[in-house]
Design goal:
21% of the residues lie in helices and 41% in strands. It has four helices and twelve strands, in the order αβββββαβαββββββα. A hairpin with a 2-residue loop joins strand 11 and strand 12. The relative contact order is 0.20. Bound molecules: flavin mononucleotide. This is Flavin reductase family protein.
Length: 174
Amino acid sequence: MTAVELELRRVYGAYPTGVTAVAGLVDGRPVGIAASSFVPVSLNPPLVSVCVAHTSSTWPSLRGLRRIGISVLGAHQEEVGRRLGARGGDRFAGVAWRSTADGSVLIEGAAAWFDCTIEQEVRSGDHDIVVFRVRDLDASADIAPLVFHASAFRRLRETCRTDGAQRAARIRRR
Ligand SMILES: Cc1cc2nc3c(=O)[nH]c(=O)nc-3n(C[C@H](O)[C@H](O)[C@H](O)COP(=O)(O)O)c2cc1C
């Protein structure tokens, strides 16, 4: 990686994101990658996107699938994010997952999931912007998301509103 690319990666990393698992069944086995580039795109039609590097050796086997699952990892799933984001190794070893009848692979206990088909792939620099059409989805309000920021996995703290309310209560008590 060049010095400019390293600098871009550092500054891009200042933008906090969640972490998703993009996965499907290939010959009956789960195949997938971690992706922090997930973005909800459109409500009508329902579209979401993920940017996939041209260097990905896994994407070519995922892109031909009928369905692909996108799971938003929970705060307790840092190890899943690490495994799915590592190069090589058995990514799904020790990971609880399930597949749908159409072949999407979803991570058990995720904060949210989307069952998708590929709508469009747009070549964009050294990545492809992959636009997915959402066929089914759900979210668990009680599962906090995993956060990726400055190249590290993190968790959300209580909201600022709560912090503010606590500060206000302290001031009132004085
Ligand atoms: C937290 C995290 C987020 C990642 N986000 C992306 C991403 O948005 N797009 C991408 O192409 N690779 C991303 N990766 C890298 C992939 O998960 C994977 O390591 C890469 O595709 C190389 O593996 P492969 O050759 O099997 O595809 C991420 C890795 C980690 C750890």
